[in-house]
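Private note to self, pasted from the team thread so I don't lose it. Backbone tokens:
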């Protein structure tokens, strides 16, 4: 199974992210831009039902 990967950042991008983390008091994770799946109505409803059952948020990506 392919998975979305962390982004490769230039040093200036890392510094900018660290500045925002410090200012906002959060941790930021940078990922490569994913390709979201285009779900039909049935697929979307099935995933929404699973989210409710598992009490999670799920995101569908093309792999």
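Design output:
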């Amino acid at each position: 199974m392919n998975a979305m990967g962390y982004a490769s950042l230039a040093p200036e991008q890392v510094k900018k992210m660290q500045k925002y983390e410090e200012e906002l008091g959060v941790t930021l994770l940078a990922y490569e831009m994913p390709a979201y799946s285009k779900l039909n109505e049935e697929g979307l409803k099935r995933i929404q039902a699973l989210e409710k059952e598992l009490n999670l948020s799920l995101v569908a990506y093309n792999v």
